[in-house]
Amino acid sequence: MTPEDDIEASKAPLMEHLLELRRRLMWSLLAVLLAFLVCFWFARPIYNLLLWPYRLAVGSDVPIEMIYTAPQEFFFTQVKLAIFGAIFIAFPVIASQIYMFVAPGLYRNERKAFLPYLIATPILFLLGGALVYFVAMPLAMKFFLSMQQTGDTQVQIHLTAKVSEYLSLIMALILGFGICFQLPVLLTLLARAGLITAAGLKRYRRHAILGVFVVAAVLTPPDPISQISLAIPTILLYELSIFAVRLVEKKRAAAQAAPKPAGKPA
Length: 266
Description:
Number of helices: 11
Order of helices and strands: HHHHHHHHHHH
Number of strands: 0
Helix content: over 70%
Shape: flat
């Protein structure tokens, strides 16, 4: 069967595509809803788990005190946390539903090429989130805590964080790092489409490094620790992307150089 026959056999009327899209969306929304209910039920233990970087920065023998300044603030903080956790947990289901929707419209070799990116995306996001949890957030909290004024006998300035603002900070860092860690996936996809080359990435390396620091300054809090913690791994990922793009180019060149099979006799 030729690739044209393969994709021709998977064609369906417009109404069937819309029904299929609705079915995939319903499964994705159901997964998000179930994950939201679970995360909201365990919102407090999850929030306490997110406080581990704060605990690492302040020390194990110092009590952590946090506040909320509006009656509904902590409730909506838990809702926000549950939504964030639900999307995170349900992502494999969402990604698989997207793949099952678009797969019938792809050639067989395109389906095989698409799967590694589908697997690499959550793995890279997890690596970015782990870097935040174990490295960037503890360093950032130590930086912020170092600004306390405790030695003055007349004026004492202590950090008493709000529950909503701490959650917003760590969520922003996880999202920022997770998105930036998708750089190899994005660049290799662009290389497969023929939009970029390894030589071009090398040529604009200095511009990319400058852009990385600009993006790090936008996505992270205004402290040098967070910005450097995001910028350095992203630059390393850019170098890794050059290697990955070079592999894509070698595979494409090998496929073009391979002899084509002779056509079947009529």
